[in-house]
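Tutorial handout. Part one gives the primary structure; part two gives the three-dimensional structure as tokens.
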Amino acid sequence: LRDHLFPAVGSGVVIGADGLILTNEHVVQDASLENIACTLSDGRTCSVLAVTSDPRSDLAVLRVDAKDLQPIRMGDVGNARQGHFVIVMGNPFGSASDNAGRPAMSFGVISALGQELTRYLDPLGERYYGNLIQTDARINPGNSGGPLLNLRGELIGINTAISTRSGASEGIGYAIAIDSRTREIIAQLARGEQVEY
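Part two.
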């Protein structure tokens, strides 16, 4: 994903064959539909028809003008353990956007589960980051919104943040865990519904 008005890049993952893409809300925050371009992994660029977002969970679902897409298989963080291998895919530093949509990949292990980082990542408390997966897989700016996969290729997290002093990956990244609550939020957003708390 790239917003042409602002120099921002992000990633997303297909969750519906009819053009539904999951990403972070902060990737598309305050961007108008006409200024968001979505490049698929096969190089096609699609216009974004609608965005339904939930700032509190930092999740958003885009409806793009594309059909017959291959959706990701959903996993569950409940089956993940510290030390399990994981794969990160996405658009670090805009590399996929500049490479006909082909995503970059890195791998690592789950360093910790259930990380509570709301007060560090959002001191104002507008977003909730209370069940994060910590990984040493390289997550860089532009990976936000992309998938954290287990070795079966199932989505277990949405890459969201890094802990860094340099601005690039230093071996500590965080992903929003996919669990029953997250799946419920994603389903509501996919239906175009606002999430209420």
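Part three, for discussion. DSSP finds three helices and 14 strands in the chain. Helices lie at 25-28, 118-121, 180-190.
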